[in-house]
Design brief:
Layout (H helix, E strand, L loop, with lengths): L3 H7 L2 H42 L4 E3 L9 E4 L6 E3 L16 H5 L1
Antiparallel strand pairs: 1-2, 2-3
Length: 105
């Protein structure tokens, strides 16, 4: 909406840098959400025939209070299926104070 030149003309360099980081984070967050939406749609398509043919109800839960929270599929007579979705090649599943692999444990 605004050009880099307009931003630089109206604000100092610190504010300009802040705005660049804020925009990058928002764009990455949006890409991640879109990736999750596509994955959920795919999982729903995989389950659709079983749900219809067997007249069962399933719950697809997203971003709930759980350690692995991107998608949880709750199907009757089946264990809960938890998914942690990442669309970046730079993600480490084993490092950090609480790693993603530990969350699955």
């Amino acid at each position: 909406m605004y050009s880099e030149e307009e931003i630089k003309r109206c604000f100092d360099e610190t504010t300009h840098t802040y705005l660049q980081h804020k925009n990058r984070g928002g764009s990455n967050g949006q890409k991640g959400t879109r990736y999750e939406d596509y994955f959920i749609t795919y999982q729903l398509a995989l389950l659709a025939s079983s749900v219809i043919e067997n007249d069962i109800n399933i719950d697809l839960l997203s971003q709930v209070c759980a350690f692995v929270d991107d998608l949880i599929i709750d199907c009757p007579n089946s264990p809960l299926k938890h998914y942690q979705l990442k669309n970046s090649l730079a993600v480490s599943w084993t490092s950090g104070q609480r790693s993603i692999s530990q969350d699955f444990e």
